[in-house]
Amino acid sequence: MRTLGVDLAAATKKTAVAVIEWSDDRARLAHLSLDVDDQEIVDLFGSCDMTGVDCPVGWPDALVPFLTGHLNFDAGPVLAHDGIAGRRVLAYRDTDRFCTAQTGLIPLSVSADRLAHPAMRCAVIQAKIAAVHGPQLRDGSGRLAEVYPAASLKIWGLNGRGYKGRGVPEAERLGILLAALEEQAPWLDLSGHRDRITASDDLFDAVIASLTARAAARRRTLLPDDAHAAAARSEGWIHLPSCGLDVLPG
Known about the structure:
Blueprint: E1 2-7, E2 16-23, E3 26-34, H1 38-47, E4 50-53, H2 63-71, H3 75-79, H4 83-91, H5 94-103, H6 116-133, E5 144-146, H7 149-155, H8 168-184, E6 188-189, H9 194-198, H10 201-217, H11 229-235
Parallel strand pairs: 1-4, 3-6, 4-5
Antiparallel strand pairs: 1-2, 2-3
Helix pairs in contact: 1-6, 7-10
């Protein structure tokens, strides 16, 4: 099995990918790249069994009728979201609320934060993948799953605080975090990429996304039940690992 992890940014400069090859009880980091364009992502998707993308793959269901109502001067669907509580439904998806309930983490809003920019790019990439490899269901039941590295790290007992950034404290924190990952996953061969990963939180997140993609491929993530299934199909679903790192290989 080959899994692809994508840490997607609005522009190519901070977009990173990591491909992990799995065999028996071992795993090897086979490809690691930064400054990645859409075509490379589409090509790598085609060569991998499962892809985990660190970016929302959809928007809240309530957002479209709200915007359409505003566009058409139809007050009903707009006034339905009057007040803070109403706006939260426009800002956060069902899976975001589920993730918060499970982990205590609050994902950025895909419709009311800068995360919307990479999400727009993600939608374009999904369309490009569909043109070549067929549409991928947003709930992750195909070969593309939405992942959230911060949540994966927390579930795996790794302290993911304070490693994002370009300062010395952030670099030191990232080095400690990677060392903790290596200790918990001695079966993972970084193939000489350790220094590159400790120098880039984007590359590190791509590796975590690829590890989470393995969990998704083996159906060892929290899947949407009947209460969440419909929203997951349209809005997307964040795949939270339901297993420890030690279960991923083999």
